Amino acid sequence: MRSFGLTAVQPTVARALVDAANFGEVTGVEEGRVFADRRELYDAGVHRALQDGIVGTKDRGAESIVLSGGYEDDEDHGTVIIYTGRGAQDSKGRQTGHQSFEDTKNAALRTSAFTGEPVRVIRGSKAEGYRYDGLFNVVDAWLGEGVRGYRICRYRLEKCGSDSSVADLETSVSGELPKGNESPGRRLIKQQRIVRSTRVAEGVKKIHDYRCQVCAVRLEIGAYAYAEGAHIKPLGTPHNGPDVPENILCLCANCHVLFDKGAILIADDLTVSRNGKDVQLRVDVSHRIDVEYLAYHRSIHA
Amino acid sequence: MRSFGLTAVQPTVARALVDAANFGEVTGVEEGRVFADRRELYDAGVHRALQDGIVGTKDRGAESIVLSGGYEDDEDHGTVIIYTGRGAQDSKGRQTGHQSFEDTKNAALRTSAFTGEPVRVIRGSKAEGYRYDGLFNVVDAWLGEGVRGYRICRYRLEKCGSDSSVADLETSVSGELPKGNESPGRRLIKQQRIVRSTRVAEGVKKIHDYRCQVCAVRLEIGAYAYAEGAHIKPLGTPHNGPDVPENILCLCANCHVLFDKGAILIADDLTVSRNGKDVQLRVDVSHRIDVEYLAYHRSIHA
After folding, report:
1. Is there a single domain that holds both residue A231 and residue A153?
2. For position B116, what pLDDT does the model report?
3. Is residue B107 included in any domain, yes or no?
4. Is pLDDT of B258 > 80?
5. CATH code, domain carrying B80
6. Are the CB atoms for A103 and A53 separated by under 8 Å?
7. Following DSSP, what letter does each residue of A132-147 receive, concatenated?
8. According to the model, what pLDDT value does residue A189 have?
9. Is pLDDT at A187 greater than 60 in this prediction?
């Protein structure tokens, strides 16, 4: 292979960069395996903590969580889980105060939403044992209100591998890799971000001529321009924002990432705050924005 | 609902903006329905042309295609289809010359890869009739070489709706919409872009400290930074680029979109050409880039 004249990175160095944490499948542990107790889970390397529900670091993300079914704000829909962070809960799973992303474990699971690295999910309890239920992506992390009115850290997890196109990629890529670079059968590809669009969003983008309402960038691809429709109050459970123009911004891909992660916030007077710098949102007379949705967006990120 | 003081866009105006073409499901036509001939397909509104294999416009994208099984460069894997453009084919489906995206129908199907709007796929032939096989996303469009050595327009289509998380969203959103805004049962959400990452890509991003190798942007979200790993020779069939550092760039989301769509090209001396402006690719001594992959990337876009 020809190559540009730069020193090659040693494979071992590259591995060391990414393998300090233990993400993904654990070799030899198939989905559905049941463990008698937390010690067994720990020894198998599936969940490397005996007490904590979340294993991981703020810097790298979470590698696994235990879903005990005892917390009043958790929702388990099978392939979709709404998970609650830790802190201010009594022994019966009742919330007794506020939570925050300052907590390192709560922050770790939020980091997984940034990195796209999958999280092992274990369901179970002391009484019934613990079942390894496969890999999930943390597709959203936000501050929400629990049933008792406290502010809690919430996460939306979706099961990996239910998308056939991803499975297809995994297979074809595994065949390409040098032997020994990945454990056999280990998942290689993860989803980092899915950009969805709607018919209504197309209309909004057209109004703004595909120019970002925050930074004014217009991404041009020949005669075509590319923009993304960002829902202010997110679509889908549990936010259930509506798919209407008043809830959509026309953004470039970069500002969309920052907006979805809360690094861009927009005040009711349409002042945009991005990393401490304020600019004014670009508007168009035929596209009304509802400040109620802006307030919701701010509330889940700050 | 409170709102910022701008005139509301009339729903009818918004509809007119997006409904000139007939994208998505056709009301009353379920997947799997068989039509006797092209006339029946036409009359049902499933494929609104009697001869052409592609219906659509360069500006808006394709609304449907017919896959006849007679073309030597087509590949049909069920939920994944590698489709060939039109032009320079004889009556037996053999390629007799080059194709190009200058052809309006070939351009239309490529536009669908930009918009994310789904395409109806019909499989069949004069002898056996035509079956409506549901909606597919055009996830990639490129110039490739056919079995006879001619340059042909190629497309990768993936079936919609196999991703459970999308299905979940569709259900919850449909429930939110004002009555009459969408035909019942019509698909509302489409996938525009999936950003996938790999372990190897994580290593590359770390080397560059999550700073874009093209435009030097670093997307900061609190203490975390966000970047995307862009495979130069794409992963997955039919490109089958390898998941190795030499085939990966660390890019911001915007430059990733432009690179994947061919609006950013990189020469062997690492000069980046973006909308006619040239800059130098940012490099790091520990991250070697293989020029063979850069040449492949240029070849599929120009």
Report:
1. no
2. 82
3. yes
4. yes
5. 2.30.280.10
6. no
7. EEEEEEEEEEEEEE-T
8. 61
9. no
Residues B157 and B230 both lie in one domain? no
Partner-chain contact B254 A217, CB within 8 Å? yes
pLDDT, tens only, B126-160: 888 999 999 999 988 999 888 899 999 999 998 88
- How many CB pairs (< 8 A) connect A and B? 293
Q: How many domains does chain A have?
A: 2
**Last residue of one domain, picked from the residues A139, A161, A176:** A176
Q: Does residue B41 lie within any of the structural domains?
A: yes
Residue A3 has what pLDDT?
41
Domain presence at residue B186: no
Interface of B with A in 222-241 (CB under 8 A): 222-224, 226, 228, 235-237, 240-241
A124 class by beta-carbon count within 10 Å (0-12 exposed, 13-18 middle, 19+ buried): buried
**CB–CB contact A219 B168 (8 Å):** no
Q: Are residues A159 and A233 in the same domain?
A: no
The domain of B48 spans: 11-176
Domain assignment present for B205: yes
Between the CA of residue A253 and those of A5, B117, B204, B228, what are the distances in Å? 32, 18, 21, 11
For residue range B56-90, what is the model confidence (pLDDT) as tens digits? 999 889 999 999 877 888 888 888 899 999 999 88
The answer, yes or no, to whether residue A50 has pLDDT greater than 80, is yes
B219/A198 Cβ within 8 A: no
Task: List, in sequence order, the alpha helices (H) in B92-163.
Answer: 104-115
**B271 and B135 housed in the same domain:** no
Whole-angstrom distance, CA of residue B181 vs CA of residue B134: 22
Nearest of A112, A292, A149, A242 to residue B172 by alpha carbon: A242
- Tell me the C-alpha distance between B259 and B168, whole Å: 31
Average pLDDT over residues A135-156: 91
B211-230: average pLDDT? 93
| CB atoms A18 and B192 under 8 Å | no
Instruction: Specify whether A90 is located in the same domain as A237.
Output: no
Q: Of B176, B211, B232, which closes a domain?
A: B176
